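Backbone shape codes:
===
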Amino acid sequence: MTLFSANLGFLWQELPLPDAIRAAKAAGFDAVECHYPYDVPVEAVREALKETGFIMLGLNTTRGNVAAGDNGLAAVPGREDEARRAIEQAIEYAAAIGTPNVHVMAGKSSGEVGRATFVANLQYACELAAKADIIILIEPLNHRDAPGYFLQTSEQALEIIEAIGTPNIRLMFDCYHLQIMQGDLTRRLQAYLNSIGHIQIASVPDRREPDHGEIDYRYILNLLEELGYDRPIGAEYRPARSTDEGLQWLQDFKERMTSRKA
């Protein structure tokens, strides 16, 4: 049966993070993930996870100075100290709440200098994460939502993963971003499955609930089951109205996957 993770960076934003975890449990999700939990005491998150029996699958490194336009730091030349502090913060928080994945955000840069900066910071992240048995994720973002972002394609990400060469770095395969940038999701999932650490979904082009738009996620979920992918799929979308009002897709997807197996 396909499992789903609620991305609390977008879902139940009106609730404190511990209460959002509880809301995800009540709604029928199987796990949770988040973006930037650092203002929330570790103990409060840990208690909510224990109460619900959930795992917090992943979290992000901080974006930096958002008011100044930052969208991550790890590929930005001259900001290595900040980038490494953000990596340390994320790994420490993840280890404290039992989170297995940390997404290291690249930020805005380009060219060989940006690549060299990103690779060096990722090597640092992988070495630090290995001590806590944590996987480092890198995620291509589309150029409409994240203009100037260093990492934009799956092939670019895979080349960097290969260059780093450690077993604890993988691709975050966000179907929304990669459909906008490249498409051909079926073949990419088939080809890159062994390098994928996490998969996320949202409708394209509006990044709403995943039951409409140009991607047929029922087909994608069937494909992933056939490929043997058994980890929770991250629902990282912006609700069209309130989160609770838009959750019919979750029940529909689960019922369809269950009836398909019957």
